[in-house]
């Protein structure tokens, strides 16, 4: 598959094995700038492993991943500056305040004008009034909103989302979706792993279905027959859960 | 400069969290003081003049207290998923290693500084104030080795099921050379009113092991985290 000139993320022949267990096998896809790729799949399909590889948290066994022209294996530090990860875990320290958490991550990323950036983001996620409270006193929804602020601190161009709606109540889900929609206007590119078909299709411009570590379906959302796609997805979820 | 600044950022974060929770320091301090008190009741009078045995008690207490602390070095990172947060930062993995090791070194040293006067009251009958700086040098060199190897092994054990058991099993065999050198040099220092020439051999050994352990941690930490 020839590489598109405008592709921001390019994944080629990606495989990952843990011991004898093959978790991902020969994954290929490309994501263009400002695109929103939703990766669907049942539990154990390899979605989280794929997101972790893209986030440079684990190394692939074979294959290459390029983000914005940077090959992850060769220059992971430069790639990390372009990546923000929002996971079902907040990646925040419960014994630090919201402000301390953001200041810590901001310093680790070498963010300039850090205090201004923190204030701006806390306002954006509507947590300015709780900035001096310990994160462990936050509800799950508030932690997830703060997690979005953490992920955006260094102004990444690529946002990786791993089941971001997991465990959120409807109100928190609404706030999260609102923030994601706002971010889409700001030139971000998204890859979201989810098993929530509604949420994924709501945001996506492209879709991919993983099953047992393999790509079983991929395409642009506007070219899809949604009801056929649902049937295809349900078939994989039903047969592999 | 950025490298050092980010190491200090991790140290500052760990200290801030520890000041707030006190969960690591409290258990270490209580453990080391209880150990010294129990040994004093059990053997107090019999240790008069037996400097090396007293030094052995001191380092057993310090080492077990250190293990209590080292067991918790990555607990928050693991339990709250923050290890992924740290690994997402655009810094070399060795920054995380040195940040965590330096924070551990500070915690262990503070506990020892609190326990040392109690040890002196219980077990030391000779005046060794002239050699106090030498004893502090032994503490620093030993603690560097303990923190360097302990942080690396803590990162390995945190991903195992029996992580609380795994660290001591991995840690004690590796730390034996440092323990021997620390006990021998401490024994020489607290038994001698003047400068004990023989201590230099043990100090050299501590320094060499520190360099080895730091290098091993620096070179292997990336693989420990990623696998």
What is the strand and helix layout of this fold?
The complex is a heterodimer of chains A (241) and B (227).
Chain A: E1 7-18, E2 21-32, E3 36-40, H1 47-54, E4 62-67, E5 70-71, H2 76-82, E6 83-86, H3 98-108, H4 114-124, H5 140-152, E7 158-162, H6 170-184, E8 189-194, H7 197-203, E9 206-211, E10 214-220, H8 226-240
Parallel strand pairs in A: 3-8, 3-9, 6-7, 7-8
Antiparallel strand pairs in A: 1-2, 1-4, 4-5, 9-10
Chain B: H1 2-21, H2 23-43, H3 51-70, H4 75-79, H5 82-87, H6 93-123, H7 132-157, H8 163-191, H9 199-226
Helix pairs in contact in B: 1-6, 2-3, 2-6, 3-6, 3-7, 3-8, 6-7, 6-9, 7-8, 7-9, 8-9
Provide the descriptors you would attach to this structure in a database record.
heterodimer, A: 241 residues, alpha/beta, 6-stranded mixed beta sheet, 4-stranded antiparallel beta sheet, 8 helices, 36% helix, B: 227 residues, mainly alpha, 9 helices, 82% helix, globular
Structural account:
The complex is a heterodimer of chains A (about 240) and B (about 230). By secondary structure, chain A is of the alpha/beta class. Helices cover about 35% and strands about 25% of the residues of chain A. In chain A, the strands form two sheets. A six-stranded mixed sheet of chain A has the order 6-7-8-3-9-10, with helices on both faces. A four-stranded antiparallel sheet of chain A has the order 2-1-4-5, with helices on one face. In chain A, helix 6 (about 170-185) links the parallel strand 7 (about 160) and strand 8. The longest helix of chain A has 15 residues, at about 170-185. Chain A is globular, with a radius of gyration of 18 Å. Helix content of chain B is about 80%, strand content about 0%. Chain B has helices at about 1-20, 25-45, 50-70, 75-80, 80-85, 95-125, 130-155, 165-190, 200-225. The longest helix of chain B is centred in the middle third of the chain and has 31 residues, at about 95-125. Chain B is globular. The two termini of chain B are about 30 Å apart. The interface of A and B includes residues 80, 89, 90, 93 and 105 of A.
């Amino acid at each position: 598959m020839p590489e598109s000139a405008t592709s921001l993320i390019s994944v080629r022949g990606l495989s990952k094995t843990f011991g004898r267990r093959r978790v991902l096998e020969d994954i290929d896809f490309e994501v263009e700038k400002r695109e929103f790729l939703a990766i669907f799949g049942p539990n154990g399909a390899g979605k989280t492993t794929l997101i972790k590889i893209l986030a440079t948290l684990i190394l692939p066994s074979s294959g290459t991943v390029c983000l914005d022209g940077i090959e992850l294996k060769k220059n992971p530090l430069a790639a990390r500056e372009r990546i923000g990860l929002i996971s079902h875990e907040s990646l925040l320290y419960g014994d630090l305040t919201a402000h301390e958490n953001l200041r810590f991550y901001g310093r680790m990323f070498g963010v300039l004008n850090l205090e201004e950036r923190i204030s701006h983001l806390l306002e954006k996620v509507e947590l300015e009034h709780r900035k001096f409270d310990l994160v462990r006193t936050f509800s799950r929804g508030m932690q997830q909103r703060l997690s979005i602020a953490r992920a955006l601190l260094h102004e990444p161009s690529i946002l990786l989302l791993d089941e971001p709606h997991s465990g959120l109540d409807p109100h928190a889900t609404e706030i999260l979706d609102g923030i994601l929609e706002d971010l889409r206007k700001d030139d971000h590119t998204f890859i979201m792993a989810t098993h929530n078909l509604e949420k994924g299709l709501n945001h996506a411009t492209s879709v991919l279905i993983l099953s047992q570590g393999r790509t079983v379906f991929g395409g642009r959302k506007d070219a899809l027959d949604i009801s056929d796609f649902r049937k295809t997805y349900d078939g994989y979820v039903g047969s592999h859960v | 400069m950025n490298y050092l600044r980010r190491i200090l950022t991790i140290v500052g974060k760990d200290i801030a969290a520890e000041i707030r929770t006190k969960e690591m320091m409290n258990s270490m301090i209580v453990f080391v003081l209880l150990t010294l008190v129990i040994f004093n009741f059990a053997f107090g009078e019999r240790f008069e003049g037996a400097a090396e045995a007293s030094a052995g008690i001191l380092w057993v207490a310090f080492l077990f207290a250190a293990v209590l602390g080292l067991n918790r070095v990555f607990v928050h990172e693991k339990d709250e998923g923050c290890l992924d947060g740290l690994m997402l930062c655009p810094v070399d993995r060795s920054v995380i290693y040195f940040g965590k090791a330096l924070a551990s070194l500070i915690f262990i040293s503070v506990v020892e500084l609190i326990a040392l006067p109690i040890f002196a009251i219980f077990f030391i009958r000779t005046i060794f104030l002239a050699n106090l700086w030498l004893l502090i040098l032994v503490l620093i060199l030993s603690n560097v080795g303990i923190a360097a190897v302990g942080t690396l092994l803590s990162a390995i054990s945190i991903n195992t099921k029996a992580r609380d058991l795994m660290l001591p099993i991995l840690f004690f065999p590796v730390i034996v050379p440092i323990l021997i050198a620390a006990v021998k040099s401490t024994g020489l220092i607290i038994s001698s009113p003047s400068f004990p020439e023989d201590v230099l051999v043990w100090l050299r050994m501590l320094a060499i092991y520190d360099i080895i352990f730091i290098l091993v941690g620096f070179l292997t930490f990336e693989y420990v985290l990623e696998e």
